[in-house]
Amino acid sequence: MSRLVEDSVIRFAERFQLPERIFHIDEIPWIPFDRGISNCFFKPLRFDLNTGTWIYLFKIKSNQTLTRHRHTGGTVIGYNIQGQWRYQGREWIARPGTFIFEPPGDIHTLITEDEEVITLFILGGSLQYFDEDNQIIGQDDIYTVLKKYKDYCQENDIPIRDDLIY
Predict the structure, then answer these.
(1) What does the alpha-carbon distance between residue 34 and residue 31 come to, in Å, rounded to a whole number?
(2) Which of 55, 56, 57, 119 is closest to 87 using CA atoms?
(3) Sheet containing 31-34: which strands, arranged edge to edge?
(4) CATH, range 22-164
(5) Measuring CA to CA, which of 4, 32, 56, 85 is 20 to 30 A from 101?
(6) What is the pLDDT of residues 15-44, one digit of tens each?
(7) Which of 97, 59, 100, 95 is nearest to 78 (CA)?
(8) Where are the alpha helices (H) located in 31-159, listed in sequence order?
């Protein structure tokens, strides 16, 4: 490919490039994942409305159990930053530095150990929550999580970061 063609392609591609997004995570509040339940929170880092993917820090207090749930479609990737957690019935434990890939459709119950947990998650698709009879009792996706973020900010007079949506 000639140098002139390469430069033309680069200029063309740059017209479609998203701008950089740089912010410090301390500028974003911890949002309760469920109203009235104060054991689990998220800090949104990106809402990609084109793919339905959202990236967030997830924090859950020590010695807690997160409702059995399933991820439908999309990718679930995690990187544990603080504390230890596991899935009930599984042999592995996520410690700081653990990378996690979850296949779509997997149903699991998250259990934390003796320390508060913080994990970076990249999620696509939806989360379905189950009761003891395997009935779906709730669901979250990019839109419900974005609404939780915006509602919390409005109720607490916190500026909404629209630059998280791209």
Answers:
(1) 9
(2) 119
(3) 31-34, 37-48, 53-60, 117-123, 76-82, 99-102
(4) 2.60.120.10
(5) 32
(6) 888 889 999 999 999 999 987 678 999 999
(7) 100
(8) 142-155
